[in-house]
Amino acid sequence: MSDKGDDELRFISEDDGDGQPSSSTRRSWRILLVDDDADVHLATVYALGGATILGRPLEFLHAHSASEAMALLQQGGEVAVALVDVVMESNDAGLRLVKFIRESVGLIDTRIILRTGQPGYAPEDEAIRDYDINDYKTKSELTSSKLYATLTAAVRSYSQIRTINANRRGLGMIVRASAELMTVLDMREFASCIIAQITHLLDLPAEGMVCARDVESGVGFHVTAAAGRFAPYQGGGLDEIADRDVRDKIERTARKEQNEFLADGTLLFVGSSLGRDLVVFLEAPVPLEENERQLLEVFCTNIAVCLDNVALVARLQDHAYFDPLSRLPNRTHFIEKIKEVFAAGRAPELTLAVIDIDHFAEANDAFGHHYGDRLLHAISVRLCVAVGPDVVLARIAGDAFGLLGSDEIVNPTFLGELFRTDFIVDGNPHTVSATFGLARLSEVDSVDYAMQDANIALKRAKLEHRGHYCYYTRSMGGEVRARVRLMQDLRQALGDGCLYLLFQPQVDLGSGQPIGVETLLRWRTESGQLVPPDQFIPLAEDSGLIVAIGDWVLRGACQQLVALANEGFTEFRMAVNVSVVQFRHPDFVGMLERVIAETGVNPANVELEITESVAMLDPERIVVLLNRIKEFGFTVAIDDFGTGFSSLAYLQRLPVDRLKIDRGFVSRLAFEGEGKNIAEMIIDLGRNLGMGVIAEGVEDAAQANYLRARGCHEAQGFLYAHPLDADALLEWLRERDD
Fold first, then answer.
1. Helix H segments across 530-636?
2. DSSP string covering 244-302
3. pTM above 0.70, yes or no
4. Are 293 and 328 a contacting pair, CB within 8 Å?
5. What are 296's strand-pairing partners?
6. Residue boundaries of the structural domains of the chain
7. Are 469 and 437 contacting, i.e. CB atoms less than 8 angstroms apart?
């Protein structure tokens, strides 16, 4: 039941005698009741016969068929609501009557409620839409209370439509006002527009105010907008309004959540489904007319949607700019503040810091995310209290905070002290260390680089020592950005054909005959500049791009090997380097299978070169993987052997065919000492383990003769040939095949 006096369900008093409304002058709402069941008519009248809606009694018109209802309607007169049974003399009798009501007698405003005892006869969606059917209920749904509620809603809707149609000008103004308010996203501006629109709608002087409250946050009413003599109260709390009577009226309206029309003013309650409520108070020299009150009711309904829009935008802005856990500004908000200080010319005075909580992920894993959240909250509170309002503090990532302020506070000494005392989480002390990256904005080239530069400093600090700090320098930024640009160019080069393959011949040291080649990857930029492999290969590995590049290299090498076989060089080996990132990729074996199938290469003539560090990654897993590779027929070599720290006992277990002596040891063969001794040791080791040995970087005959005398099997280097492209390699091989 509504608690408005004119909406109460009033039952007939015995004192009324004849059972009619006590006031014969009151207009009634005409309700057409169409149903072929006489009991439905009796039950409806019994439930609603003494009711009043919007201060008026109900007058029932009874029809027991659609035909009888049509005849009754042709007699004329308005009908507020038609309660129509769907199935009567025919299955579609109710729907035909609906069409008759709308089209034949033109009762466009009448609200139609369809009822049926057979749910399967529900009207089609098109019928509900085309004939403006107000509601559809099964008879079992319409208990006395629900019938009254449904009828009240329908009558109210009818009354409002009639009022609106009688007030075209007011409706047009409301529509325009609502459209304008829908575009307003700021609460203060929205409130000011409400005062302007209502006073214009009613042709009243702008004397009043709009008070707002946030139900969810518990923030009480404050004056969001005010005009006329109330203007000085704008921005203040409700208790600051000097007129106690006005305060009481606003509080009463808020408490009842109902509009109130008084002789000297109007109070409107505008509720929001998102927890933002408004009370509008307007002083009026004369009481409002009924149609004006109705217009304001409609206006309130419309602007409630607009208010939800403003509240939603405010909520979205809150989510967009504030971290829900710490309630600190988030990364987006922090960057906006950085832009503001640059725009205001204050950047050179300030320092930007990024604080990364060390080993936070481990705490999360060990104690759970709820514990981690409470730890972050404790850190947020300590930072907020310590740095004060003059420093912008934000949570910019899961376990990282940003600070923007003067060097007096935003410096590693001050910030480091904040982490020397344990944080209390769930009553227990928790030790936290942090790493700092700092950038003096005077050293930053532009606002776009500010956060990047602080993060560059943070990464450098992490590399040096956890719990340490590092200040950004321009040279540091230049190195990083050059690396990033190179990475972007490399990604582009893979698709643009700027990467290409060269092949360095390998020979048998005994006979001097070619036995194979090593595939070498090269990059020439579009400008013609050669980028050394020791620059771009590590970049490719760091980014994971080496997986795609490695696939491309192996495919190209195998295609070249097939082409050489077609030229008659069938017993020829193609060595291809495999990166640690490739080797650890879960699809590495699958990639080998695809390359074999697509190129038709004989795997027995392909040698995969892995570094000593790869061989030592995970002994058990590596042995299994190498055996899987060997099953395809590939041979395996350990490249740059001697530069790592291999376990000889472990080396014996590896299914490896060849050891490759690093060029650094070969270049020192002419000198007595460590380099020469290591080369000799590798040759002896290979012989003892039954592995082949190949030396790279052989540049003169003395090196070749020494290696051959010590028992080294194979070699490659400038003494035999520089790296060659495919055509030059074929020519080189033909010359030695004659």
1. 533-543, 546-566, 580-584, 588-599, 612-615, 619-632
2. HHHHHHHHHHHHHTS-EE-SSEEEEEE--TTSEEEEEEEE-SSPPPHHHHHHHHHHHHH
3. no
4. no
5. none
6. 5-165, 168-321, 331-472, 498-737
7. yes
CB contact at 8 A, 11 and 19: no
Give the gyration radius of the chain's Cα atoms: 43
Percent of the chain with pLDDT over 70: 86
Distances 689 to 76, 607, 658, 659, 693 between C-alpha atoms, Å: 112, 18, 10, 10, 11
Question: Which is nearest to 376 in space by CA: 392, 363, 390?
Answer: 363
* 168-321 and 331-472, same CATH topology: no
Domain 168-321 part of CATH 3.40.980.10? no
Q: Has residue 13 got a pLDDT over 50?
A: no
Q: Which residues are CB-contacts of 117 (< 8 A; sequence separation ≥ 6)? A: 87, 138, 139, 140
The CATH number that domain 5-165 falls under is 3.40.50.2300
Burial per residue of 497-528, b for 16 or more beta-carbon CB atoms within 10 angstroms, e otherwise: ebbebbbbbbbebeeeebbbbbbbbbbeeeee
Instruction: Please check whether residue 718 is in contact with residue 703, taking contact to mean a CB–CB distance below 8 angstroms.
Output: no
- Residue-wise pLDDT tens digits, 624-655: 899 999 999 999 998 877 665 455 666 777 88
Q: How far apart are CA 545 and CA 560, in angstroms?
A: 23
Q: What is the number of residues in the chain?
A: 738
CA angle 208, 213, 215 (to 5 degrees): 155
Per-residue model confidence as pLDDT tens digits over 675-728: 678 888 889 988 888 899 999 999 999 999 999 999 999 999 999 999 999 999
Q: Are 36 and 76 in contact (CB under 8 A)?
A: no
> 331-472, what's its fold?
Alpha-Beta Plaits (3.30.70)
Cα–Cα dist 694/509, whole Å: 9
Task: Lay out the sheet containing 265-270: strands in order across.
Answer: 219-227, 208-214, 276-283, 265-270, 260-261
Distance CA 584, CA 329 (A): 40
Quote the longest CA-to-CA distance of the chain.
134
d(CA 283, CA 285): 7
Left (φ > 0), alpha (ψ -120 to 50) or beta: where does 31 sit? beta
> In whole angstroms, what is the distance from residue 13 CA to residue 17 CA?
8
Q: Which of 566, 586, 694, 704 is nearest to 635 (CA)?
A: 694
Q: Which long-range contacts (CB under 8 A, 24 or more apart) does 127-131 make?
A: 127/95, 127/98, 131/95, 131/98, 131/99, 131/101, 131/102
203: left (phi over 0), alpha (psi -120 to 50) or beta: left
58-77: average pLDDT: 91
Q: What angle do CA 231, 237, 240 make, to 5 degrees?
A: 70
- In CATH, what number does 498-737 get? 3.20.20.450
> Could you report the per-residue pLDDT of 246-261, keeping only the tens digit for each?
888 888 888 888 888 8
Distances (CA, A) of 607 to 503, 518, 625, 630: 14, 9, 15, 10
Angle 446-451-457 (CA atoms, 0-180°, nearest 5)? Answer: 105
Please give the backbone phi and psi of residue 725, each rounded to the nearest 5 degrees, phi first. Answer: -80, 180
| Per-residue DSSP letter, 465 | -
pLDDT band at 8 (very low <50, low <70, confident <90, very high): very low
Q: Cα 84 from chain centroid?
A: 50
Residue 516 has pLDDT above 90, yes or no: yes
Phi and psi for 18 in degrees, rounded to 5?
-85, 0
DSSP assignment of 142-209: --HHHHHHHHHHHHHHHHHHHHHHH-HHHHHHHHHHHHHHHT--SHHHHHHHHHHHHHHHHT----EE
